């Protein structure tokens, strides 16, 4: 398992792949004592049997530091001016986005992450992907997690076709694999259903079309841990059904899928376990129906 710990750079370190001692205890504890395994969270273990842990999140805190907050003087010119005038550093505003989150994900699980706006869902995914360093706590992952968000980087000025090729290569496919899977990716995305959009620059796509193409590129490869941020919310019903089917296949191929969404139907149709975050804290971790029921009864739960 790779480890992401406080104070390390955002780049995923090439650490030993076995579970470190602390995480091992967490994982064993999780398997033996289901009701207590998620710290403050409640609810019984989901139906899928705990097997091989793929992600262990242990007391994770993520803090954003916003420099020059509230002063309107956060840019380079203002910084140079302050240095020349020997003024102090700008004020720093801290946003404590994830607070002491602990859970273990297992191979073959699809885990929904829900919570109101700003509750820390995307931040948690980015920390698992190694894109944000923990302030405190640790994240251990088996394999390289792939974060697929609606903002995942594709090049707007390049055509959809070129992005499919670059995206496939960037995910580690060989040229032959990209070539073999190209048509499948385009067909899956459905962007060419009405016109030859794949030959046009991505900036001409609607946000839904772009999100569908991103999902299709990412889903063309088997992932150890695939994290999806809202992508399903942007497609039409037919695309959502294809995506749900593909997520089920990815899980069968021994991966773990995380899905962040405000669409409770997508979560219900896709996930068997749900984490509910509020104000950065893990409020509940359990079977989808139980957690969504509690969330919907909560003010602000939609
Ligand atoms: N780059 C950033 N810099 C500073 N603060 C940030 C940054 N990104 C998010 N935040 C703050 O961190 C907190 C959690 O945000 P996050 O985007 O993780 O929530 P979310 O649950 O994914 O929200 P939403 O459902 O609206 O997408 C919020 O208070 C947000 O303002």
UniProtKB/TrEMBL annotation:
Coiled-coil portions? none
Cellular component per GO, a single term: membrane
Q: Which GO terms describe its molecular function?
A: ABC-type transporter activity; ATP binding; ATP hydrolysis activity
Please list the residue ranges that the record marks as compositionally biased, kind Basic and acidic residues. Answer: 18-39
Q: Where is the ABC transporter domain?
A: 80-302
Residue segments, region Disordered: 1-52
Q: Which UniProt keywords apply?
A: ATP-binding, Nucleotide-binding, Transport
Give the matching Gene3D superfamilies.
Answer: P-loop containing nucleotide triphosphate hydrolases
Q: Which family does it belong to?
A: Belongs to the ABC transporter superfamily.
Protein name per Swiss-Prot or TrEMBL: Teichoic acid transport system ATP-binding protein
> What organism does this protein naturally occur in?
Actinacidiphila paucisporea
**Which taxonomic lineage does the organism of this UniProt entry have?**
Bacteria, Bacillati, Actinomycetota, Actinomycetes, Kitasatosporales
